[in-house]
Amino acid sequence: MTTTDAESTPAVPKIGEEILSVTSLVKHFPIRKGVLQRQVGAVQAVDGLTFNVTRGETLSLVGESGCGKTTTGRLLTRLLEPTSGEIVFEGRDISHLREGQMRPLRRDVQMIFQDPYGSLNPRHTVGKIVGAPFKLQHVKTEHGVKKAVQELLELVGLSPEHYNRYPHEFSGGQRQRIGIARTLALRPKLIVADEPVSALDVSIQAQVVNLLEDLQEEFDLTYVMIAHDLSVVRHVSDRVAVMYLGKIVELADRVDLYEKPMHPYTVALLSAVPVPDTKRKAKQERIRLQGDVPSPINPPPACRFHTRCWKAQDICKAVEPPLVELAPGHQTACHFPENQGTETPAAAVDQAKS
Amino acid sequence: MTEPIEEVQDSVQRVARGEAFLDVRDLKVHFPTDDGVVKSVDGISFKLERGKTLGIVGESGSGKSVTSLSIMGLHPPGVARISGEIFLDGQDLVQASREEVRLLRGKRMAMIFQDPLSAMHPFYTVGHQIIEAYRVHNKVSKQVAKKHAIEMLDRVGIPQPDRRVDSYPHQFSGGMRQRAMIAMALSCDPDLLIADEPTTALDVTVQAQILDLIRDLQREFNSAVIIITHDLGVVAELADDIQVMYAGRAAEYGTAEEIFDEPQHPYTWGLLGSMPRIDRERSERLIPIKGTPPSLINVPTGCAFNPRCNYAHLNGGASETDRPELLDTGNGHMVACHLSPQNRQQAWETDIKPKL
Amino acid sequence: MLAYLIRRLIGAVVLLFIVTAVTFSIFFLVPRVGGATADDLASRYVGRSVGKEQIHQTAERLGFTDPLYVQYGRFVKGLVVGTDYNYGPSTEHCPPPCFGYSFLTQTPVWPDLVARIPVTASLAGGAAFIWLVTGVGTGVISALRRGSVLDRSLMSVALAGVSLPIFFTGLLSLSIFSYGLGWTAQGGTNPLDETNPIWWAYDLILPWTTLAFLYAAAYARLTRAGMLETMNEDYVRTARAKGLTERDVVLRHGLRSALTPILTIFGLDLGLLMGGAILTETTFSLPGIGQYAVIALRANDLPKVLGVTLVAAFFIVLANLIVDLLYAVVDPRVRIS
Which InterPro entries does the entry link to (chain C) (predicted)? Predict the structure, then answer.
């Protein structure tokens, strides 16, 4: 495992140690049809993911709708059971643990959800919501649950007096803070955050992003971040995995991925991000992918991106490109990768346009 | 499209009066509720000509969507109290009867919405919905309208439009649905198109396609476009002018270049500082705006932004007591802020610009 | 779609089969469990003065001494191909569908039911038409004028409609419109044929309105709630943004969606009523299925009660099936998936 660049990595003592490792992870949702409800196909939501997560880092899964990033998050936290493949957390295979066996693990692996409105029970007070994990896991707290909850509220930037209030009394950003406080209650080691800021206003987004970063530093947290906003992902991640139709097409260090993207899909994705700069409008240097993401029910054969790729050749329709390390720490699944050798991103873009 | 002589004369008179094609003056939209009056829009003005695009930027509750709905006359009667003037090609929409405004809706002004799945009726085919929009304002047979619908679908880039015209919205992908919505909005060749968060629900590669499409269609139809969004990147793609809204009022108004290159209002600075930029060096930390947006029932006195502003203390207490007017700083770049030009210049040069 | 239809049909048949088994058990197994012997059951069908021997012979002849599954088999066989009942000196043939044979009145049940279904159907159909039009209409008006005096008065009337029992509103309206003013019939019915549709309606107008009042009230509240929800949908805003007239917005876009759940309830209500509107039929002396059921229950005439139960169950299952299929017609999203 390569370590991340020095610029952003907080000084975590145990860095480099593997906390989570995923091998050939597959999740298919069967589709049944006909009088006898026979299985006629499957939504290939996640189709063979291999990656690992190092303690203290932030790995982001990015991609468009249908790429399987949310399903992956639910598999990692074992809210779903994988169809096949292996998830190893701290040396223990958790792929097929039953609910009871999962219980101790739920302390170590927590999830933050996108919707700060839907994920908090409106009938419970903040104190009850944030204190629930203690009760569920039968954790003894030194000065009682209330004190522990109030400490957590302070930690995420809320006032301890909010203990007896209800979720509807809070704004979106504050609700997301409540969700984060609940997540932190049992001092997890790994947090899977599914679009933690995408429902929030821009000014609030920055507050929550900064909070997540501070907490990571303070508690040596490891994040698996699931997001579609490439700007936010660039800001928070150490490494980034780009997903397309259930597969990882590129996995690299943040700097490499954003400066020298190799997979054409990553290149297109980055070029599609609108930036608040009017000068770029004039340049029109865009790569425009045609059409929408195909359905994960019958994904295109071989390279799944070939239907929208401007570089696709016959081989792309016949042979699936494996995810291989083309540069140190930079894995790409493409027959005709960009930015190899002397090519600069700009040159690649020009080439793509012509 | 040739306009009837009457309309042309209207336009001539309008220009003689110095009115813009769309001219909004001191628009206020208040909603009386049990808890108090919600001042969603509290005095905004802007002008927009044909062929130009205005971006309205703001966070949730800033009043940007309420503004667009009141231009379209879509607030239910009796619920909203609307005052001020909205001139569309010389006709005041606030004073016009509901029936007059209805006849303009869809014909001279049209709107596309954020979530194309919920904005289309699930029980009717895409074609049916476009045909319906066309036939409200054009007395033509269903066959003619259907032919027109197919042409429109083709124009917005839907493949096999003669087949897809009979599909239901749920059979379309998100991007296709938004294309169909655009086809529907443009079916009567409107002079004004309002796009309310048109790409927020879409994937980034599809968003880019839709933004391109809106830009191309605007050139082709020479319509005036208002794009409402929270995403500064999206307005940078499309807008000629930008209005930044905060708590129901305009904080800053200027050309896109002015807003992005020399923003004047601390709130605009805050927005630019809070968003991570993919096109710049990665900053170590984002600079969020402190606090949360205000309640529209109890808007802070003075400058509504003062509790969240880092520079409010420089104004000798004016920020807390006097509401700043939107004033021209020169060249039409307007800002509603008490900061003196010197202080503003200094804050921008030393605190803000280096960190963006 | 075809596969869906077949699956639903198979489901309906299985369901009806289960219903016959359960009803049969209630009427014939439960008394056994309760301690009644075959002779006890048979004793009701013989004169009071006969001896035990004779009762036992009757029990054997009627098949009560056979094991229950044999009796059930005979019953199902009767439904499908008909059966013979050995009654006293003669043997009665009961042609399919044989819903049983009443030993009390010495008649097969099915012809009785067939004679009464039109009455119940007339009552239910007419009432359904009235309540659908008035209930949905009221609901739409109420929703559009939400919070107004009109809305509040309509909803108060609707609340009264839901709360007041049929025998109260029925007797009240009878005493006013029929006995008092003499405008309507005093009960009973004429069958509908081409010569007398006016008389048919004249006889039924009071039962219709009484029954419809109850349902219209519920439908008004349901429609109002549905309309309040759909009129806030984004697509209704889109319809307005297109410049459609308010009438088209409400009827073609708002109501169209609000009607879908009402359709479901309507089908089930109608199916339920076809099994007999007991209170209405009794109040207005209408010889329908419901009245038949009451008479049979009073006489403890089990085969008739069983027959009514099965007919009622059949209509409910049928209504369910039709509703599901209609759903697919109304909502294209159901059709595809």
Answer: BPD_transp_1_N, MetI-like, MetI-like_sf
